[in-house]
Amino acid sequence: MSDTVALTIDNVQLQGRPGQTILEAADEAGIYIPRLCHLKGLQPFGSCRVCTVLVNGRPQAACTQPISPGMVIESSTEQVREIRKDLIDMLFVEGNHFCMFCERSGNCELQAMAYRFGISAPRYPFLFPSRAVDASHPDIMIDHNRCIRCARCVRASRDLDGKEVFGFVNRGPHKELAVNAAARLVDTTVDVTDQAMNVCPVGALLKKRTAYVVPIGRRKYDHTPIGSEIEGARSQ
Amino acid sequence: MDLALPASTKKIVIDPVTRVEGHGKVTILLDEANQVVQTRLHIVEFRGFERFIQGRPFWEVPVLVQRLCGICPVSHHLAAAKAMDRIVGGEHLTPTASKMRRLMHYGQIFQSHALHFFHLCSPDLLFGFDADVKIRNVIGVAARYPELAVQGVMMRKFGQEIIKATAGKKIHGTGAIPGGVNKNLSIQERDGFLQDLDQMVTWARGAVGIARDYTVSNLQTLAPFGSFESSHMSIVRNDGAMELYDGNLRAIDAVGDKIFDQVPCQEYSDYLAEEVRPWSYMKFPFIRSLGPERGWYRVGPLARINTADFIDTPEAEAARREFMALTGGKPNNLTMAYHWARMIESLHAIEKIRDLLHDHDLQGTDLVVKGERREEGIGIVEAPRGTLIHHYKVDDQDQVVMANLIVSTTHNNEPMNRAVQKVARDYLSGVEITEGLLNRVEVAIRAYDPCLSCATHALGQMPLTVELLDHAGQVLDTKST
Amino acid sequence: MLLTERADRLFAGMTIAGYAIGAAEGILYLRGEYAYLRAFLEDVLTTRYRDHLLGAAILGKTGFDFDIRIQMGAGAYVCGEETALISSCEGLRGDPKTRPPFPAQKGYLGLPTVVNNVETLCCVPKILEEGPATFGGHGSPGSSGTKLLSISGDCSRPGIYEVEFGIPLTEVLTLAGADDAIAVQVGGPSGQLIGPKDYARKICFDDLATGGSIMTFGPGRDVLKTAACFMDFFVDESCGYCTPCRVGNVLLKDRLERIRAGRGEPGDLDYLQRLGTTVKTASRCGLGQTSANPILTSLANFRPRYEEMVKAHQDGFNPSFDVRAAVSEAEGIAGHSSVIYPQPIEER
Question: Closest by alpha carbon to B109, among B61, B158, B172, B182?
């Protein structure tokens, strides 16, 4: 078995390693494929579909699709960009994402993704669902209004913290994050030092009383768009 | 925008609801002899902040509620932050936090007063109430008095930059957090402001002169215009000085006798109550000891100049003395004197900004304090247009369970109604709404509050409708600006 | 029908498949709706164990060990998707799994697994008994054998029919007594809604593919309503795992309902086409990849009906917004009616 796999992404030729996903190979090559549910260090999940690429013309999620020799991948073509914009729009309208007062504003990956794609308002109508806030825990809060069902906290709690505090219940549009307790977060074994507390891409799983401590201008995405850290690796 | 529509088009007239902040409707009711018996300023927008904030975590409130307004968001931001200081037991701010917030607040007063005076009101004052609306707007001012227009823009910009340096953004920032602030002022930021400071003081001084000269030289006309005797309320400092950010409540009657004084903000509800009337979404606050009939009062620049014993900055104090001399030291009850009072405050604000910029506490790094957690917090500031009260209750899960906001426009609800009534009585002739009447209703409201007229001059159309009703309630005439 | 009439043949087919791939265990996944069949099927299995057609050393052949158990499901359309079915068998949420690995690489409990439907497995004993030539003698090129069709809807003779692959749809409609059908849904909710101009097409993998479901719609039926019902179904049956299927189907359905309510506008057709294409392209499993079909195929085959509903109004105003409904909640909170919209806006 060869120790490299040759493929092209947007006409850039690159060598990946066997067993890598498209997204991993692209990251190493300094090519940013947008993603929301994926986080390095967690099992690939493939739910947001924002990393959708065309592999030899067929749509695939880059975060779960392993590379194979000769793959021809389209990632930043107009067609793929439009699909991603649709998906980002859907995530916005599905929940209640009020960036203007959300404490994750400026550090939110969903918001940063919208900015990266030049989305100022979604093209789909807001669904304005009625969703709850679970503030029962003294140090942690879940604002279900902003959950994008990415399962990062589910995976981190299960695989990194060994706790399985989070999971999903119900299906379709009613699918929602739930906690491993009769009803409330306070009744679980979650702790504010859990790794699961550091992975939420949006303002859904929050550490209490830490909001707005970082002033505007010093937040994660105030000056460089999301993905710059990966694209920066390429230019070096 | 003009859309070419087919001839068969039926136009659906929608009241100017889109500008929620600026929608007003006035009804004038006549008796059988066609004399004005009643006028009402209906505030028809419904905001719902007090309701939808319930359940939100308390630390979100200062950032959330400032969305009430695009002109004076800092006031809401700070009033809510002060309330939340109480919740986290952090009301004794560090010097850096306290001074950063004050700087933000004075920047806000400065920019808002500049907007109010130069952009929104100066067309009325410079061109006269009856001038053609095509000229009587900010563009007209820019054409005829370009220097003045530039001053207005630059003063507003200076204030906005102060806000940006303290809150992170010019509009709807995040600077104040429960128990403190999230940044200090860098030397670089400070030095940038110091460069423009003298110019700002000069212009602010000049603006006091314009407002004073206008008022004094047109006193015959202005004295009765929409005027009436009233009580006045504001916060003042412990020593009776004018105070805009943090003080105790004082109310005086029309001749200057104190109704209450040095009332701690946390006790406001022992002294003030609110009445609901079915024809307006806006409540009518009143002083409890006087009752709903007589207990109404005015807030804002005029009230603040009237209630304060003195101003603690020299130039503004000199201007205040000149202002009070007009009424022999007694409270000034002229509606149109609001503009003069406003410019005195503007001068005070820039003097305060000057003092603060020279204070090294602004470069401190001790930004946040916390203490014993409370379940209730009240924050009161003097917003550009008057006293602003934010009152919250927070449960043990950190969620807001009750919110009561009394904004300046609400305090001034009855006074604005009175002003409109006075104008209607003085200027209505016959059973027709003339342009002159319509303009004067606008001018009277604008003396108090550009929030009901913010779109007026800028876009050439005021979102105000006046309706004239006969004794049987039949509409005789209706006119929109 | 195969389970009630030919259960024995199914289990024989599974056993042969097990032998072919060297598997030791087979699972029959039975949806919750068919729980009533369970006792009967268990009896059939017991008989087969007794007759040494299951268990260790089947028919005395050393090393040919094969067990079959029945796994009950809770009743979810998505569990017909093979990886969701495996998840459900494993006791997990009935969510589809990430592919690759495919079930034949890593399936049930991480072991290589083949998943086939009942009809396919029932064909196996017949092919072995009668020989592949006989089987191949039925059907059309590329689609050998026969097909069971479950025909329902507006027809005088609904029922289950066995037909040869390659049969034109017109003949199927005649069989079932649905010659006046204005529309036919071929292949269930995820299939296609076609009109009379396509009735000459053939039932086979290369043309009109179907798992067996044919629904006929007679004169007087509204294809928009048909599409809306199927969208309801998909909104309900989506597992909610991926964004396009979870959100996109709701958006599709909402817009279709708006059109049906007479509040559509001409641009809505492009909106549906675009949104449907994204759902089809970006969804994670077969359910989402086909869930937009009710709209996409009805839009392709019955476009005039849509156009009729989204015509531009003569006066240039197409009201897509009900202001009274929008202010009603605020009125409730305020305790009195809106000053600006005290009563409905004048009807046009």
Answer: B158
